[in-house]
Amino acid sequence: MTPEELRNRTQQFALRVIKLTSVLPKGTVGDVIGRQLVRSATSVGANYRSACTSQSTATFRHKLSIVVEEADETLYW
Fold first, then answer.
1. Element (H, E) at 55
2. I need a labelling partner for 40 at 20 to 30 A (CA). Which of 14, 20, 47, 57 fits?
């Protein structure tokens, strides 16, 4: 998979999660979970794009570890 394909996939992932959260039940629980879910899911793609512009391998690895953390958080929510 190329970096461009992964950029597109992470963006599509974020858009699908946004669509999913729009049908959550209205109320405190739905709002809190929805906000957290959108925040972590959209962060996956944003942080991946940031990793792709890293100036060093160490920075790339660090930023990619953040991507993994955000993906795991999204799975949690």
1. none
2. 57
Instruction: Quote the tokens at residue 40.
Output: 């972590």
Of 74, 37, 16, 60, nearest to 8 (Cα)? 16
Three-state SS at 64: helix
Note the pLDDT tens digit of each residue in 31-70: 999 999 999 999 999 999 999 999 999 999 999 999 999 9
Evaluate whether 19 touches 60 at the Cβ level (below 8 Å): no
Q: What is the mean pLDDT of the chain?
A: 96
Phi and psi at 74, nearest 5°, equal -60, -45
